[in-house]
UniProtKB/TrEMBL annotation:
Keyword Signal: no
Pfam families xref list: TetR_C_11, TetR_N
Domain spans labelled HTH tetR-type: 20-80
InterPro entries: Homeodomain-like_sf (IPR009057), HTH-type_TetR-like_transc_reg (IPR050109), HTH_TetR (IPR001647), Tet_transcr_reg_TetR-rel_C_sf (IPR036271), TetR_C (IPR011075)
PROSITE patterns for the chain: HTH_TETR_2
Entry protein name: Transcriptional regulator, TetR family
Region (Disordered) residue spans: 1-22
Molecular function GO terms recorded: DNA-binding transcription factor activity; transcription cis-regulatory region binding
Signal peptide, first to last residue: none
Amino acid sequence: MIPPSAHPSPTTAKRERRKEARPGELLEAALELFVEKGFAATRVDEVAARAGVSKGTLFLYFPSKEELFKAVVRENIAGRFAEWALEVDTFEGSTSELLRYCYKVWWERIGRTKASGITKLMLSEAHHFPEITQFYQHEVIRPGQMLIRCILQRGVDRGEFRALDMDYAIYLVLAPMLFLMLWKHSMGACVPDALGLEPEKYIAMQADNILQGLVVRPPSPSSPPG
């Protein structure tokens, strides 16, 4: 028989659960504040207060604001590229269907979430913070570009897309994403009903436009002799 003292009390169990939850709560609070206020204006004591812990507790997990920001980026974006790459590798439909699918799930998983505000933050403050800029380029921008390149190269290799200058074609795919993130956290945030923009319809239209330019078309019949 296990002595009563060996069983954790409800208070102890609650404290342990709280301790285990702290990193996630801190990352969630940090994401909210970074998106609301920007990197420079966010203070670590504000993050700790919003998460319901002391500043000292925050520093047990994240030794600086820079490391806290990096953890936020990894949790919400950078840490998911392996999962996304596997989805691309195992997709069974056409590359046109794959591109439409990627736009759709990007909006669902990133675009319409708070994580989309990280891009706006980087565009606004990158030149002031070279360390986090270099980190973001390495952990988000380059993997993102490589993933798009793989999708486009898949289409070319399968004879679905015409030959492309991949260094620039990736920006065709990125442009609608960047627009939506800026709209959501800039003009759309200030005047949310001014344009009546529905992101899902916008993405579908942009996918149509991009694919019209990418897909290989059958040769047109030669003109009859005059």
